[in-house]
Amino acid sequence: MKDADSKISVCIPVYNGEKTVSRNLNSLIRQNYKNFEILISNNKSTDKTLEICNAFKKNDKRIKIYNQKKKLPVFQNFKFLIKKSKGNYVMWLASHHKLSKNYLKENYKILSKNKQLVASMGTDYFETFYSHKDKKNFSLEHDLYNNLIIFFRYCWRSHGIFYSLIKKKNLIKILSSLKHYIASDWIFMINLIFQGKISRSLDTYLILGREGNSLKKKFYYVNKKYKSIIPLYYFTKHFYELINSSKQLTFFQKKKLLLAALYLNIRYLISIIKI
Description:
By secondary structure, the chain is α/β, with parallel strands linked by helices. 40% of the residues lie in helices and 18% in strands. It contains ten helices and eight strands. Strand 2, helix 2 and strand 3 form a beta-alpha-beta unit.
């Protein structure tokens, strides 16, 4: 196998990550898999993020830093890095998350040996609320319908899917689905599920930091025209389009999945009320 065939691109979009980016990068340079590059997109940080990243770059030639001239929307920054990546396998990693030492090696092994798989992930848990019960171990290696049902069951803890190691050829096909509306990350993950199966390596883990936007009260937003009825309007619309055009799903399966999407709107409304 050629060296380029097994190369992994780890893409880190970051804005004002001085408090966490060091532990993030340390978890990467200590990986027991060596054939990878680290791509950092500094989104006009105003703190010491760039200074910290440059210090790591001096000691590791695998690190490349891109400084944005103007601040990009979150998902545009994610897409920017994918376009710069040179690996056949890619993953995003938020600057406040970190990986187990064997994450890249073990998930690459799984992914490279199975043509049916489009991605592989480790277990994941929140750093400040760690417990064995908190670990998420579900995988998506069934037929399309059951994988979608499983996704809806665990969608609130689907971080591992978004930050999984993905075959680049599959990621490129669905990159346009990552847009700036609430729950578009779910649509992206659902598109990935439509591409193929997703495994989970129980011997590896992703530690989720608590500094993410989804934990900030002002982060949620809905389309004003539909907010009183369907808060996740664009998510529901795009999900319906996906399942409606699928030949792998029966009529009754499509109806059940649409009901699951509508029920998700209710759960989301409840979460807003709790905030």
